[in-house]
Amino acid sequence: MPITYERMKEATARLYEWSLRKVPDDTLEALRRARAAESNPVAQRTLGILLRSAEMAETQDRLVCSDSGVPTYSIGIGTAARLEGDIRRAITDGFQELVATTTPPLLKHVTNPLTNERSHSGKDMPLVTWDVIDGAAYLDITCQPKALGSGRWAALEIFTFPTLEQIEAYVMDCVLKAGSQHCPPVHIGVGIGGTFEHCARLAAKATLRPYGTRNPEPVLAAMEERLLKAVNATGFGPMGTGGDTTALGVHIEYAAGHGFTPVAVAFNCWINRRTRARLHEDGTLERIE
Questions:
Q1: What is the pLDDT of residues 8-19, one digit of tens each?
Q2: Any idea which fold 148-268 has?
Q3: pLDDT digits (tens, 9 = 90+) for 56-83
Q4: Helix, strand, or coil (residue 107)
Q5: What 3-state class would DSSP assign to 178?
Q6: b/e per residue, 192-203, with b = 16+ CB within 10 A?
Q7: pTM above 0.85, yes or no
Q8: Sheet holding 260-268, edge to edge
Q9: Domain spans of the chain?
Q10: Is the dihedral of CA 108, 112, 115, 120 positive or negative?
Protein backbone atom coordinates (compact mmCIF):
# COMPACT_ATOMS: atom_id res chain seq x y z
CA MET A 1 0.00 0.00 0.00
CA PRO A 2 1.56 3.34 -1.00
CA ILE A 3 1.80 6.42 1.20
CA THR A 4 -0.89 8.72 -0.16
CA TYR A 5 -1.53 12.44 -0.42
CA GLU A 6 -4.26 12.23 2.24
CA ARG A 7 -2.08 10.45 4.80
CA MET A 8 0.80 12.85 4.20
CA LYS A 9 -1.50 15.86 4.59
CA GLU A 10 -2.88 14.56 7.88
CA ALA A 11 0.50 13.47 9.28
CA THR A 12 2.35 16.74 8.66
CA ALA A 13 -0.51 18.87 9.99
CA ARG A 14 -0.72 16.80 13.17
CA LEU A 15 3.04 17.02 13.76
CA TYR A 16 2.93 20.81 13.50
CA GLU A 17 -0.02 21.08 15.89
CA TRP A 18 1.56 18.70 18.38
CA SER A 19 4.75 20.76 18.41
CA LEU A 20 2.81 23.88 19.44
CA ARG A 21 1.12 22.26 22.43
CA LYS A 22 3.81 20.16 24.10
CA VAL A 23 7.37 20.80 25.21
CA PRO A 24 9.50 17.70 24.42
CA ASP A 25 10.05 15.34 27.36
CA ASP A 26 13.85 15.67 27.31
CA THR A 27 13.46 19.46 27.45
CA LEU A 28 11.11 19.29 30.43
CA GLU A 29 13.61 17.09 32.26
CA ALA A 30 16.46 19.47 31.41
CA LEU A 31 14.43 22.41 32.73
CA ARG A 32 13.75 20.54 35.98
CA ARG A 33 17.43 19.71 36.42
CA ALA A 34 18.36 23.32 35.71
CA ARG A 35 15.88 24.61 38.29
CA ALA A 36 17.28 22.26 40.93
CA ALA A 37 20.86 23.35 40.18
CA GLU A 38 20.20 27.09 39.68
CA SER A 39 21.84 29.34 42.30
CA ASN A 40 19.98 32.55 41.42
CA PRO A 41 16.58 32.77 43.20
CA VAL A 42 15.01 34.92 40.45
CA ALA A 43 16.23 32.53 37.76
CA GLN A 44 14.95 29.60 39.80
CA ARG A 45 11.48 31.16 39.95
CA THR A 46 11.63 31.94 36.23
CA LEU A 47 12.39 28.31 35.39
CA GLY A 48 9.44 27.33 37.58
CA ILE A 49 7.17 29.65 35.57
CA LEU A 50 8.37 28.09 32.31
CA LEU A 51 7.71 24.60 33.62
CA ARG A 52 4.21 25.53 34.78
CA SER A 53 3.50 27.09 31.40
CA ALA A 54 4.58 23.88 29.66
CA GLU A 55 2.51 21.69 31.98
CA MET A 56 -0.62 23.84 31.60
CA ALA A 57 -0.32 23.84 27.82
CA GLU A 58 -0.23 20.06 27.78
CA THR A 59 -2.95 19.41 30.37
CA GLN A 60 -5.29 22.15 29.11
CA ASP A 61 -4.57 21.67 25.40
CA ARG A 62 -3.28 25.20 24.86
CA LEU A 63 -0.43 26.65 22.83
CA VAL A 64 2.80 26.90 24.81
CA CYS A 65 3.56 30.25 23.15
CA SER A 66 1.53 32.57 20.93
CA ASP A 67 4.47 32.80 18.51
CA SER A 68 3.73 29.58 16.66
CA GLY A 69 6.40 30.39 14.11
CA VAL A 70 6.27 28.85 10.65
CA PRO A 71 6.13 25.10 9.90
CA THR A 72 9.50 23.65 8.96
CA TYR A 73 10.02 19.98 8.12
CA SER A 74 12.95 17.62 7.62
CA ILE A 75 11.75 14.54 5.78
CA GLY A 76 13.66 11.34 5.13
CA ILE A 77 12.22 9.28 2.27
CA GLY A 78 12.71 5.54 2.57
CA THR A 79 14.03 4.09 -0.67
CA ALA A 80 11.65 1.13 -0.30
CA ALA A 81 8.60 3.34 0.35
CA ARG A 82 5.97 3.76 -2.34
CA LEU A 83 4.42 7.20 -2.76
CA GLU A 84 1.17 8.10 -4.49
CA GLY A 85 -0.20 11.54 -5.30
CA ASP A 86 1.13 15.06 -4.80
CA ILE A 87 3.18 14.50 -1.65
CA ARG A 88 4.73 17.99 -1.56
CA ARG A 89 1.38 19.68 -2.07
CA ALA A 90 -0.06 17.55 0.73
CA ILE A 91 2.20 19.36 3.23
CA THR A 92 1.00 22.77 2.04
CA ASP A 93 -2.64 21.71 2.04
CA GLY A 94 -2.31 20.16 5.49
CA PHE A 95 -0.97 23.43 6.88
CA GLN A 96 -3.80 25.43 5.33
CA GLU A 97 -6.43 23.02 6.64
CA LEU A 98 -4.94 23.26 10.12
CA VAL A 99 -4.95 27.07 9.95
CA ALA A 100 -8.66 26.96 9.10
CA THR A 101 -9.66 24.56 11.88
CA THR A 102 -7.33 24.75 14.88
CA THR A 103 -8.23 26.46 18.15
CA PRO A 104 -6.98 28.90 19.28
CA PRO A 105 -6.33 30.38 15.83
CA LEU A 106 -2.74 30.73 14.68
CA LEU A 107 -1.40 34.24 14.24
CA LYS A 108 -0.20 35.36 10.82
CA HIS A 109 3.52 34.71 11.05
CA VAL A 110 4.20 33.80 7.40
CA THR A 111 5.89 36.93 6.04
CA ASN A 112 6.62 37.99 2.47
CA PRO A 113 10.24 39.25 2.67
CA LEU A 114 9.70 41.63 -0.26
CA THR A 115 6.65 43.43 1.13
CA ASN A 116 6.62 42.43 4.82
CA GLU A 117 2.98 41.44 4.36
CA ARG A 118 1.93 38.76 6.85
CA SER A 119 -0.51 35.93 6.23
CA HIS A 120 -0.89 32.16 6.60
CA SER A 121 0.58 31.31 3.19
CA GLY A 122 3.55 32.18 1.04
CA LYS A 123 6.18 30.99 -1.40
CA ASP A 124 7.79 27.65 -0.42
CA MET A 125 5.66 27.46 2.73
CA PRO A 126 5.86 25.15 4.63
CA LEU A 127 9.64 24.95 4.41
CA VAL A 128 10.86 21.41 3.69
CA THR A 129 14.25 19.75 3.35
CA TRP A 130 14.53 16.21 1.99
CA ASP A 131 16.90 13.28 2.42
CA VAL A 132 16.80 9.55 1.68
CA ILE A 133 16.96 6.55 4.02
CA ASP A 134 18.38 3.47 2.37
CA GLY A 135 16.14 0.41 2.61
CA ALA A 136 13.36 1.98 4.70
CA ALA A 137 9.69 1.55 3.76
CA TYR A 138 8.49 4.68 5.53
CA LEU A 139 8.84 8.45 5.63
CA ASP A 140 10.66 9.86 8.67
CA ILE A 141 9.14 13.30 9.32
CA THR A 142 10.45 15.86 11.80
CA CYS A 143 8.61 19.13 12.37
CA GLN A 144 10.59 21.95 13.97
CA PRO A 145 8.64 25.24 13.76
CA LYS A 146 10.81 28.32 13.46
CA ALA A 147 9.74 31.35 15.47
CA LEU A 148 11.58 34.52 16.47
CA GLY A 149 13.53 32.89 19.31
CA SER A 150 14.64 29.98 17.13
CA GLY A 151 15.43 31.91 13.97
CA ARG A 152 16.37 35.55 14.41
CA TRP A 153 19.82 35.05 15.96
CA ALA A 154 21.15 32.24 13.78
CA ALA A 155 24.39 33.13 11.99
CA LEU A 156 27.00 31.71 9.63
CA GLU A 157 30.52 32.73 8.73
CA ILE A 158 33.04 31.13 6.39
CA PHE A 159 36.62 30.74 7.61
CA THR A 160 39.79 29.48 5.94
CA PHE A 161 41.40 26.58 7.81
CA PRO A 162 40.14 27.75 11.23
CA THR A 163 41.49 26.41 14.50
CA LEU A 164 39.15 24.93 17.08
CA GLU A 165 39.80 28.02 19.20
CA GLN A 166 38.65 30.28 16.38
CA ILE A 167 35.50 28.24 15.93
CA GLU A 168 34.67 28.41 19.63
CA ALA A 169 35.36 32.15 19.70
CA TYR A 170 32.92 32.66 16.81
CA VAL A 171 30.21 30.63 18.56
CA MET A 172 30.63 32.73 21.69
CA ASP A 173 30.50 35.92 19.63
CA CYS A 174 27.10 34.80 18.31
CA VAL A 175 25.97 33.98 21.85
CA LEU A 176 26.98 37.41 23.14
CA LYS A 177 25.26 39.20 20.26
CA ALA A 178 22.03 37.31 20.92
CA GLY A 179 22.16 38.03 24.64
CA SER A 180 18.83 36.99 26.11
CA GLN A 181 16.70 37.99 23.13
CA HIS A 182 16.08 34.39 21.99
CA CYS A 183 14.11 33.42 25.12
CA PRO A 184 16.67 31.35 27.05
CA PRO A 185 17.48 28.82 28.29
CA VAL A 186 18.24 27.90 24.71
CA HIS A 187 19.36 24.88 22.75
CA ILE A 188 22.41 25.78 20.65
CA GLY A 189 23.28 23.89 17.48
CA VAL A 190 26.62 24.33 15.71
CA GLY A 191 27.50 23.13 12.22
CA ILE A 192 31.10 22.92 11.05
CA GLY A 193 32.28 22.23 7.50
CA GLY A 194 30.67 21.16 4.26
CA THR A 195 29.34 23.98 2.09
CA PHE A 196 27.37 27.12 2.96
CA GLU A 197 23.96 25.44 2.71
CA HIS A 198 25.06 22.10 4.13
CA CYS A 199 26.63 23.73 7.17
CA ALA A 200 23.40 25.57 7.98
CA ARG A 201 21.54 22.27 7.85
CA LEU A 202 24.10 20.70 10.16
CA ALA A 203 23.48 23.40 12.76
CA ALA A 204 19.73 22.86 12.51
CA LYS A 205 20.23 19.10 12.73
CA ALA A 206 22.32 19.55 15.88
CA THR A 207 19.37 21.19 17.64
CA LEU A 208 17.35 18.01 17.08
CA ARG A 209 19.59 15.97 19.32
CA PRO A 210 18.08 15.21 22.75
CA TYR A 211 19.55 16.94 25.77
CA GLY A 212 22.11 14.84 27.58
CA THR A 213 23.63 13.33 24.43
CA ARG A 214 27.21 13.93 23.33
CA ASN A 215 28.83 13.84 19.93
CA PRO A 216 30.62 10.49 19.46
CA GLU A 217 33.67 12.36 18.14
CA PRO A 218 35.79 13.07 21.28
CA VAL A 219 37.07 16.40 19.98
CA LEU A 220 33.53 17.65 19.45
CA ALA A 221 32.23 16.17 22.71
CA ALA A 222 34.88 18.15 24.57
CA MET A 223 34.00 21.28 22.59
CA GLU A 224 30.31 20.87 23.46
CA GLU A 225 31.18 20.69 27.15
CA ARG A 226 33.47 23.73 27.03
CA LEU A 227 30.97 25.82 25.11
CA LEU A 228 28.07 24.96 27.39
CA LYS A 229 30.11 26.01 30.40
CA ALA A 230 31.19 29.24 28.68
CA VAL A 231 27.66 30.11 27.55
CA ASN A 232 26.26 29.65 31.05
CA ALA A 233 29.10 31.71 32.50
CA THR A 234 27.76 34.73 30.60
CA GLY A 235 25.11 35.10 33.30
CA PHE A 236 22.23 36.05 30.97
CA GLY A 237 20.10 33.38 32.63
CA PRO A 238 16.55 32.22 31.88
CA MET A 239 14.59 34.89 30.01
CA GLY A 240 17.40 37.34 30.77
CA THR A 241 16.79 37.38 34.53
CA GLY A 242 20.41 36.50 35.33
CA GLY A 243 21.68 33.20 36.68
CA ASP A 244 23.47 30.02 35.71
CA THR A 245 21.13 28.77 32.99
CA THR A 246 21.45 30.51 29.63
CA ALA A 247 21.65 27.25 27.63
CA LEU A 248 20.48 23.73 28.38
CA GLY A 249 22.71 22.18 25.76
CA VAL A 250 25.24 22.83 22.99
CA HIS A 251 25.35 20.24 20.23
CA ILE A 252 27.75 20.15 17.28
CA GLU A 253 27.69 18.34 13.93
CA TYR A 254 30.38 18.44 11.26
CA ALA A 255 31.10 17.43 7.68
CA ALA A 256 34.21 17.26 5.54
CA GLY A 257 34.63 20.03 3.02
CA HIS A 258 37.15 22.25 1.28
CA GLY A 259 39.77 24.47 2.91
CA PHE A 260 37.08 27.10 3.33
CA THR A 261 35.14 26.06 6.41
CA PRO A 262 31.66 27.38 7.14
CA VAL A 263 30.61 27.58 10.79
CA ALA A 264 26.89 27.99 11.52
CA VAL A 265 25.20 28.66 14.84
CA ALA A 266 21.48 28.06 15.43
CA PHE A 267 19.35 28.60 18.50
CA ASN A 268 16.11 27.07 19.75
CA CYS A 269 14.20 28.98 22.42
CA TRP A 270 13.38 27.33 25.75
CA ILE A 271 10.41 25.43 24.27
CA ASN A 272 12.82 23.61 21.93
CA ARG A 273 9.97 22.64 19.61
CA ARG A 274 10.22 19.42 17.69
CA THR A 275 7.99 16.48 16.86
CA ARG A 276 8.95 13.43 14.88
CA ALA A 277 7.05 10.47 13.47
CA ARG A 278 7.33 7.71 10.87
CA LEU A 279 4.59 7.38 8.30
CA HIS A 280 4.42 3.74 7.22
CA GLU A 281 3.00 2.30 4.03
CA ASP A 282 0.01 0.84 5.89
CA GLY A 283 -0.96 4.36 6.93
CA THR A 284 0.27 4.02 10.52
CA LEU A 285 1.75 7.17 12.02
CA GLU A 286 4.35 6.02 14.54
CA ARG A 287 5.22 8.89 16.87
CA ILE A 288 8.92 8.98 17.81
CA GLU A 289 9.13 12.32 19.64
A1: 999 999 999 999
A2: 60s Ribosomal Protein L30; Chain: A; (3.30.1330)
A3: 999 999 999 999 999 999 999 999 999 9
A4: coil
A5: helix
A6: bbbeeeebbbbb
A7: yes
A8: 155-160, 260-268, 186-193, 247-255
A9: 3-22+64-147+273-287, 148-268
A10: negative
